[in-house]
Amino acid sequence: MAVHKVVLIPGDGIGPEVTSLTVKLFEAADVPIEWVTVELGEPAIEKYGDPFPEDALKTIKNYPVVFKGPLTTPVGGGYRSLNVRLRMELDTYAVVRPAKSLPVDWLYVDVPRYKNVDLVIVREATEGLYSGVEHFVGRDRCAAETINIITRKGSERIIRFAFEYARKNKRRLVTAVHKANIMKTTGGLFLEVFYEIAKEYPDIEANDRIVDNMAMQLVLKPHEYDVIVTSNLMGDILSDLASGLIGGLGVAPSSNIGDKYAIFEPVHGSAPKYAGQWKVNPTAQMLTGTFMLRYLGMDEKADLIEQAIFKTLNERKKLTYDMARTLRNAGIADIEPVSNKEFTEEVIRNLKELK
């Protein structure tokens, strides 16, 4: 099997922990990947005084696939989101976030209606309210403005991506999510383009939902939806909501796909308050890794790793604190949580048994 060179961005906060554990799991599965490590975020600031050094970007652009841990985004100030900048630099315009229930029944004991959820949110990642065009108004900063940029080109390619994804993966329905009732020009353009492109795919059903109604629909009846395509901010919010339907951010993978590059990262953030404690659940990072392996054509390796993860979760012998808490709160079991290192060792033990 050919060796793939993949950029590894460990991230910051708990990022270096969960990425290192995933790399260790990949090594145990004999995955043929050669990692090219690039530092962004807090480690880059410490070394270079810049969270996103130009040399780092040059290195990243030499390779088509990036596997990254979470990066901290300062709230209300500081530098611009590195995640957003990376997507824009590489033009990975489609954030693909599957929300699929895992074959682990106890994850859904407190939300039984959400078993067997299987939907995908496709989110535009280079424009909209995350375009970075914003400013204060007046010398006394009496107001602030953010510009919502929606282009026909950007809308066409993300909507066509969603329909192509649906066709390739034998999905039946694509739903456009918008706020065209209030944002009549930006939302209206997105919706107009959606129905123009939908005509090119007569084999796939198409409909639309206003975003606030969509949030309610996902809570009440997520099984009625299949592929959801939407703009940047709306997709960011809805994908976190959808993650809650399948067990939370700790088990939610994600990817950012463009015509030339692909970035794979978990949905959850960097959780800096837990950094160095080795307690945060690495499952999302690991499943993001299997998402990447399928993209690289290594389905058998992805299957093996997923089976080992699911076996570990179902056995309930060694689980991180968040999963142990779910079992305890549901009255199923009162087990002592283990570190994410011990959890990973258990996954590796199961992987070796499955080989």
Give the low-pLDDT segments.
none
CATH topology of the largest domain: Isopropylmalate Dehydrogenase
CATH-derived architecture of the largest domain:
3-Layer(aba) Sandwich
CATH homologous superfamily of the largest domain, by name? Isopropylmalate Dehydrogenase
CATH class of the largest domain: Alpha Beta
Rounded to an integer in angstroms, the radius of gyration calculated over CA atoms is 20 Å
Q: Count the beta strands.
A: 12
Strand content: 15-25%
Termini separation (Å)? 17 Å
Shape: globular
Run of helices and strands:
EHEHHEHEEEEHEHEHEHEEHHHH
Q: Sketch the major β-sheet.
A: 10 strands, mixed
Mean pLDDT: 93
Tally of helical segments? 12
Number of domains: 2
Order of strands in the sheet with most strands: 2-1-3-12-11-4-5-10-8-9
Question: How would you explain this protein's 3D organization?
Answer:
By secondary structure, the chain is of the alpha/beta class. It has two domains: 1-91 and 258-355, 3-Layer(aba) Sandwich (Isopropylmalate Dehydrogenase); 94-245, Isopropylmalate Dehydrogenase (3-Layer(aba) Sandwich), CATH 3.40.718. It is built from twelve helices and twelve strands. Helix 1 links the parallel strand 1 (4-9) and strand 2 (33-37).
